[in-house]
Structure formats: structure tokens, C-alpha cells
Amino acid sequence: MNKHQTEFHRAIALVKDGDAAFAALHDLAKAVADPKLFTVTTIETAAGVARRAFSSDPVSYPRSGTKPIHEDDWFRQVHGEQKAFVANTIEEISQRFPDYELINSLGCQSVVNLPVVAQGEVIATVNFLHETGYFTPERVEAIHVEMGLPALTAMLISRTSN
User: Fold this and answer.
1) Superfamily of domain 3-161
2) What is the pLDDT of residues 39-52, one digit of tens each?
3) pTM (predicted TM-score)
4) 90-105 burial by CB neighbour count: b if 16+ within 10 A, else e?
5) Which of 54, 20, 73, 65 is nearest to 126 (CA)?
6) If residue 103 lies in a helix (H) or strand (E), which one and from where to where?
């Protein structure tokens, strides 16, 4: 376990609610991949909606409201195959996300959407955004290795406390 993971474990052991759990996860994300924008989106499959549960930029991406789930190529990859989605240009992002202009205006042109899986189902995505070409294979691997279990831990705390 590295220093950042140790710090996350110490922080997560003390949290009392989902907001604090996601704040601890954001601190870990900053150490692992230093995203310009970091969000957590929960998935409510039965209701067919996704909900933003955490945002490092609550002005541009507030933690409220829902958006419908569309079963497109992104959904099949992230939810069906349970594989991360990676795009390293705003052109790639624009093909998947209708809010690409806002994303671009925040200085973000690349994204990693990491699925959070519990009991065989994607319950959330942890989303890292940064400048063009930022998510190298090494950074994506670090996100997979260092963020998966902490993201699940934060989600489970959020589900049981909020």
C-alpha cells in the first residue's frame, strides 16, 4: 500500500457520510491522476437514470438532478462490459457527451469513466477529466489499480449513510 492509499484508508475510516467519503476519494484521485474535474455519478438502473453524487466543480457540475440513461456504445462498454471508457480529445468526447462544450470550456478535453461494480452490477462511475492527451496508458492503469476498491468503498458508505 502506498502513502496515498494509506491516507485514504485513514480518512475513510473516520467519515460519517457519503459526502465525506467522496471528498476522501477526490483527495486520492488528486494523488493518483490529478484531474482538473472529478465527479462521481451513481446509476439507478431500475429508474433508468444517472445522478451526480459528487463534483469537484459544483458550480459547473452541481450535485443534483438526474439524466436519463441511454443505451449507446458508451453504455454497452462501461455498463455491459464493465470496462473504463477513455477519450483523449474533445472530438472523441463530443461523440459521447452532449455537454462537451461545457467540458471544453473548463479546459478539459480528455476523460476516463471508471465503472464501480458491486454484486456484478455497475452502481456508479468515477470520472476524471483533464487536458488533451492527458490519460496515457500509464495513468489509466494507475486509475484502475489504485481507484477501483476505494471508489467501491466510498459508494458503499454513501449508500448506507445518506
Assistant:
1) GAF domain (3.30.450.40)
2) 999 988 888 889 99
3) 0.95
4) bebbbebbeebeebee
5) 54
6) helix 100-105
